[in-house]
Design brief:
- With 95 residues, the chain is of the alpha+beta class.
- Helices cover 31% and strands 27% of the residues.
- The protein has one domain: Aminopeptidase (3-Layer(aba) Sandwich), CATH 3.40.630.
- The protein contains three helices and five strands; from the N terminus they run βααββββα.
- A three-stranded antiparallel sheet has the order 1-2-3. Strands 4-5 form a two-stranded antiparallel ribbon.
């Protein structure tokens, strides 16, 4: 990719990554309050990441992901169900 790169986002690119989120939000007619500080915190998490495309030192695209374990052996249940409060067949709140 002459003049460009595809790689994990650098901490110094947090403001540009936040602006990409704002641009996408504008295209979808919604607001975004994502800040560079939030992007940096997201980058520090061990279960998430940001892959960016840059052209001439300007971010032109980004792909973000966040994940967690599908199953937690110590809990004996899926991690996703633990987060919803329905791990033991509990009813969702408000029902």
């Amino acid at each position: 990719m002459p003049g460009g790169r595809r790689s994990p986002a650098r901490a110094a690119e947090a403001a540009q990554a936040a602006e990409l989120v704002h641009e996408l939000a504008r295209l979808e007619n919604v607001d975004s309050d994502v800040t560079a500080q939030q992007v940096r915190a997201y980058q520090r998490r061990s279960d998430s990441g940001i892959l960016v495309a840059a052209l001439d030192d300007r971010l032109v695209g980004a792909l973000t992901w966040a994940g967690g374990p599908l199953f937690e052996a110590s809990a004996g249940r899926s991690a996703g169900r633990r987060h919803t409060g329905q791990a033991r067949g509990d009813q969702p709140r408000g029902t």
